[in-house]
């Protein structure tokens, strides 16, 4: 029995020795495994940044006209600025600032070297810096009652330059005295109503030239006058001839007509 117990103890000792010998090998294997595939650190959770939306450039009023705007769009936009009412009884400093902003917005639809031409003579009525001074006078002296509207319109659809022929009516219009500087420093006329026919020319997204003629025949003021009626008048034929001259062709493109008179129905 003693021999058996002794043998058993010796076997246990040998097992222990084997385990001790194998421990360094196991540690070495573990170390190699660690080197090969080091534990990855979990990425720190950070707050997701919201994607920045590209900011739209704020268009200054002086840069309102831009490529893509045709003659109709520009004629509408400048008339909207023209009709912006500014009361005469405001404090002087406040009114001056509002008039300056209105003029800046209005001028944004015109080229710097814009010209107003007389249709019949072909002469220049006003151009460049004088154009801004003329309308500075109009806005300052005409007051909040100044109103302009297009009653009939022909638009000739084509590539730039584009053209728009408007029959316009202006109320409470005040301008400088004839033959004096357009800024009105030497006196202004009494408020008046005026009917005009205006041909707008667009180039590079702004109005470059305008041809004027008084609507003495009151074609634009006749609510029942339609496209064919107007095209038969001398006034339309004069502007049509000017358009053909400007475009250098008989083909004026697609002609689009609008009658803006509000005719109430009977019954």
Q: How widely separated are the two ends?
A: 134 Å
Q: Per the principal axes of the C-alpha atoms, what is the gross shape? A: elongated
Strand runs, count: 7
Q: What structural class do you assign from the helix and strand content?
A: alpha+beta
Number of helices: 6
Order of strands across the widest beta sheet? Answer: 2-1-6-5-4-3-7
Q: Which spans have pLDDT < 50 for at least 5 consecutive residues?
A: 37-63
Relative helix content:
25-40%
Query: What fraction strand?
Result: 15-25%
What is the makeup of the main sheet? Answer: 7 strands, mixed
Mean pLDDT across every amino acid position: 83
Description:
There is one protein chain. The chain has 267 residues and is α+β, with helices and mostly antiparallel strands. The protein is built from 6 helices and 7 strands; from the N terminus they run αααββαββββααβ. The chain has helices at 2-36, 71-82, 92-107, 128-142, 227-231, 234-247, and strands at 110-118, 124-127, 147-157, 162-173, 192-203, 206-214, 254-259. Strands 2-1-6-5-4-3-7 form a 7-stranded mixed sheet, with helices on both faces. Strand 3 and strand 4 form a beta hairpin. Helix 2 packs antiparallel against helix 3 and helix 3 (92-107) crosses helix 4 (128-142).
Short précis:
About 35% of the residues lie in helices and about 25% in strands.
Notable characteristics:
single chain, 267 residues, alpha+beta, seven-stranded mixed β-sheet, 6 helices, 36% helix
């Amino acid at each position: 029995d003693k021999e058996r117990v002794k043998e058993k103890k010796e076997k246990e000792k040998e097992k222990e020795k084997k385990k001790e010998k194998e421990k360094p090998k196991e540690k070495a294997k573990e170390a190699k495994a660690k080197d090969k595939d080091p534990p990855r650190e979990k990425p720190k959770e950070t707050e997701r940044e919201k994607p920045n939306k590209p900011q739209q450039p704020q268009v200054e009023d002086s840069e309102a006209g831009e490529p893509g705007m045709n003659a109709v769009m520009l004629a509408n936009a400048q008339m909207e600025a023209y009709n912006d009412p500014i009361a005469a009884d405001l404090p002087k400093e406040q009114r001056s600032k509002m008039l300056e902003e209105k003029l800046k917005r209005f001028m944004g639809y015109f080229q710097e070297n814009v010209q107003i031409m007389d249709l019949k003579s072909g002469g220049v009525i006003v151009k460049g810096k004088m154009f801004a001074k003329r309308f500075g006078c109009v806005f300052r002296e005409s007051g909040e009652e100044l109103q302009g509207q297009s009653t009939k319109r022909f638009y000739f659809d084509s590539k730039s330059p584009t053209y728009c022929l408007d029959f316009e009516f202006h109320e409470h219009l005040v301008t400088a005295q004839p033959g004096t500087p357009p800024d009105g420093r030497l006196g202004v006329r009494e408020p008046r109503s005026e009917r005009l026919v205006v041909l707008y020319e667009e180039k590079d997204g702004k109005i470059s030239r305008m041809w004027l003629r008084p609507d003495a025949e009151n074609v634009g003021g006749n609510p029942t006058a339609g496209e064919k009626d107007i095209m038969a008048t001398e006034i339309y034929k004069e502007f049509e001839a000017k358009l053909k001259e400007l475009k250098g062709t008989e083909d004026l493109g697609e002609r689009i007509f609008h009658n803006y008179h509000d005719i109430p129905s009977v019954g």
